[in-house]
Amino acid sequence: MSTTTPRYDMEEQPNKDFPNGTITYSVSLGTEEYVCQSNIGMNAGFEITPRWFPTGRPAFINPTTEKPMKASDFLGRLNLSSVLESIKERYGKKEWHFHYPVEAMIKSQIFKYIKGLRWDTALLNHLKQYPTDAQMLGFEIDETGTPKLPSQQTMSHFVKTRMRQEGLYDIFDSLVMAIREEMAARGIQLGKTIGVDSTPMKSLRNDKDAAFNPHYNIKGYKIHGAVDLDHFLPLTFNFTTATDGDSPQYLPLLDRLHMLGITFNGVYADGAYASFENFAIVNHHYRARTVFNLREDAKISPLGTPAGIKKQYNLLWKCDGFKPDAGLEYMLYFLMWHQRYDVVGAYYRNKHIKEWEKNYDATKTDYNKRAGIEAFHGHLKQQMNIEKFLDKKGIQNAEIHVLLCYISLLAVALCRLQHGITDGLVNVKCLV
């Protein structure tokens, strides 16, 4: 979406949604785990029927570093009904399309990233050696106890051809929305505080799609992400070469959050994003607060003062809707409609400068929340090995790799939420 398009039309656009339906998911009661049926919708809560079925497994206990859990056992307790619903159109009605359970194919890719298995061959070798893991992920086991597993080519076909980037983004979106609903059921707002930032990702040697960035001194790509700073959750991202600028990615990320039904109250970013347009769109259209780290020598812009706004407003006296005696709020609305983001942005930037000047220490402390997204990017590189495990050249392969990494973290978070855990949602170190 163009960053110069007025956002007023977006108020009438429906949020991305998936069909409602009856699902089966696991819950823990006392010391045992049960499954029950639930009606789930993006705008409805959970309605649990009185029928309960024991699974024979112990109740879910949140894994920690002190009390780790097998990754396969953890993922076996994850319900992916909404994900399966979101990608069902990618499968026809022919039986061979379901030769291997779709849920097992998705969970096995998540398992690969959690376990740090770099290639599909390593994943399949592990599942052959440990058939119980394969069974927990959803693969069938024959009479001899041997798991019915796809070939490496079939696994690759599932990701690169069947799902493709579009299908993986559908999985990503459905996980975000499922997390949103789980949190809403507990009175928690997902995305209330957003951090926006980019992080470089080194490419493989001789990757022709990658670009050299002298600032980072690497050849590679950039991940431009929006992260929930309160819960350490990735909500959306854009993927570009390493030389693409940061500021142009800011508004598309926030527009994407809007389409996913996420309402944010505050957006934190460094000074590279502090353009007039970004100030205008976030503060006026989204009615959210921007928190940027402005330069120490930042000056009040005459364009954004009441006199400057009045002057620029009067220049549009021939336009429909012009009112000679309009108040400040109407003038800002009118200027936004006519895409005078420089004027409206200057107004909100001036307010932000005054906020820093009036109470520097409190504003600095507030701005420091932005460090959460830097910590998250560190988590990607240290715990998820996002650079180390990139094994193919080309921007499309690199983007798929990043998508699977993000999907794995979201799946871990969703599983915890489905079992009532709201802290440490993306901790994978305790999954072994």
Structure description:
The chain is α+β, with helices and mostly antiparallel strands and 432 residues long. The protein folds into two domains: 12-185 and 383-418, no CATH class; 193-378, 2-Layer Sandwich (Nucleotidyltransferase, domain 5). It has helices at residues 71-76, 81-87, 102-115, 120-129, 131-137, 152-185, 247-259, 276-285, 306-314, 328-337, 341-358, 360-367, 371-382, 395-418; strands spanning 21-29, 32-41, 44-58, 193-202, 211-213, 218-228, 233-241, 266-269, 289-292. Strands 4, 5, 6, 7, 8 and 9 form a six-stranded mixed β-sheet that branches. Strands 1-2-3 form a three-stranded antiparallel β-sheet, covered by helices on one side. Strand 1 (21-29) and strand 2 form a beta hairpin. Helix 2 (81-87) packs across helix 6, helix 6 crosses helix 14 and helix 9 (306-314) packs across helix 10 (328-337). The longest helix is centred in the middle third of the chain and has 34 residues, at 152-185. It is elongated. The two termini are 41 Å apart. Mean pLDDT is 87; it is low at 1-14, 18-24 and 37-53.
